[in-house]
DNA sequence: GCTCAATGTAGGCAGCGCCAACAATGCTGT
DNA sequence: ACAGCATTGTTGGCGCTGCCTACATTGAGC
């Protein structure tokens, strides 16, 4: 019995993961606008309705991509943190990790910070965001304890730092800033953030 | 001759403006994802292909919306600037103007900073971005001249300030920050930005 | 007043997301 | 062992979309 090119068994085995992987690649290569469930199904080699078994919605798939993005980013942030180092060094390392992720996954970042999410996913996404912010909040709290930064509502200080970094990321993603140049000047940027724009 | 409810003349008169106006409303009410050229045509009362006479593309219409957004934003920034005032006051006023615009036009802002633009529009959009940044660059240059802020590459200092504000805007747009709360704490935010996080 | 460019209309095409009906598969209890 | 059933994949179809082409109407310039 010659069977030509071993047809895939009726059941894929791990279609959900395969779809996410393929979607992640398309997202990176051609942007979120080019993502289509039907093309995704073709790429993976299943019928056009198969993805519907794993993602009730296109939005649900996008949310799953975003969640995966948060998990990777949070791992990167955790790996970059050096709690035993002085504040500025820690902050710079975290900034580098965050911006590195942003530069390499601009479309994904856009998805992660998009305002539209399925209600079912938003709880998990909110938790992931909290986890990311938590890394910075911990840093701020530690630094306040050591007297390395000013007192005051730690949440506000975290916001100042996070907004600065996220702004850089967003400007890079929007091509308003050059990625390499920004990364090269990141130490100075963080220094200015910590020491202020006013002369001392 | 009774003509019932005076049918619109064959030529609309200013279809382009009408389309942009209707699109802006839909964008604000239901987001960019809900924008459809055909629905737009129905709303304005023309045939489904009429918009194509004024916008070669859907992207071209989005770019036109973004450009209009920049013009309104730049007017708001220009109106808020008070060149005769001290640096911190000027910066706070600009920050308030920018964030006010961001809070009231989150979807539009997303469009303005989107990475995908038609090549024909991108020159005008780049000019509009430069105009926006120019307001801040001028502020930084003035302040350096007065010795109110540190010396150094003014472009870098502008980036620090712009990234911070844009980050706040993006976080608000992504619902990661509460709009009113952020606006209420804006003075403090700018103060921290200027004076740094480190104790003096 | 004729001509022509500009602008609006009608119809059609392929692709999309989503849905419902059906088919193949593998798990589970007896 | 195998019947029953939930899971997962397939097929077909609906209405929508953006875009294209051919045609109709209009206003402006000669």
Based on the model shown, name its key terms:
Arc Repressor Mutant, subunit A, 2 domains, DNA-binding, Tetracycline Repressor, domain 2, 9 helices, mainly alpha, 200 residues, elongated, homodimer
Descriptive report:
The structure is a homodimer. The N and C termini of chain A lie far apart (about 85 Å). The first copy, chain A, has helices at about 15-30, 35-45, 60-80, 85-105, 105-110, 120-145, 155-175, 180-185, 185-195. The first copy, chain A, has two domains: about 15-55, Arc Repressor Mutant, subunit A, CATH 1.10.10; about 55-195, Tetracycline Repressor, domain 2 (Orthogonal Bundle). Chain A has nine helices and no strands. Helices cover about 70% and strands about 0% of the residues of chain A. The mean pLDDT of chain A is about 95. In chain A, helix 3 (about 60-80) runs parallel beside helix 6 and helix 4 (about 85-105) packs across helix 9. Chains A and B meet through helix 7 and helix 9 of A and helix 7 and helix 9 of B. Chain A binds a DNA duplex (30 and 30 nucleotides) through helix 2.
Protein topology:
The structure is a homodimer of 200-residue chains.
Chain A (H helix, E strand, L loop, with lengths): L14 H16 L6 H8 L13 H23 L6 H18 L1 H7 L6 H27 L8 H20 L5 H6 L1 H10 L5
Helix pairs in contact in A: 1-2, 3-4, 3-5, 3-6, 4-6, 4-7, 4-9, 5-7, 6-7
The structure holds a DNA duplex (30 and 30 nucleotides).
């Amino acid at each position: 019995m010659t069977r030509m090119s071993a047809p895939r068994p009726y059941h894929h085995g791990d279609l959900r993961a395969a779809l996410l992987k393929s979607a992640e690649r398309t997202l990176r290569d051609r942007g979120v606008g080019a993502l289509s469930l039907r093309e995704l199904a073709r790429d993976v080699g299943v019928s056009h309705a198969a993805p519907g078994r794993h993602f009730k919605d296109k939005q649900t798939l996008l949310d799953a991509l975003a969640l995966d993005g948060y998990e990777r980013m949070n791992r990167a942030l955790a790996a970059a943190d050096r709690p035993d180092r002085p504040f500025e060094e820690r902050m710079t390392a975290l900034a580098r990790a965050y911006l590195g992720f942003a530069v390499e996954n601009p479309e994904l970042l856009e998805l992660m910070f998009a305002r539209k999410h399925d209600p079912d996913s938003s709880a998990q996404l909110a938790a992931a965001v909290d986890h990311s912010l938590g890394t910075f909040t911990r840093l701020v709290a530690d630094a306040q304890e050591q007297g390395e930064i000013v007192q005051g509502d730690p949440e506000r200080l975290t916001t100042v730092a996070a907004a600065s970094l996220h702004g850089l990321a967003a400007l890079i993603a929007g091509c308003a800033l050059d990625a390499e140049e920004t990364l090269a000047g990141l130490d100075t940027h963080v220094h200015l953030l910590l020491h202020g724009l006013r002369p001392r």
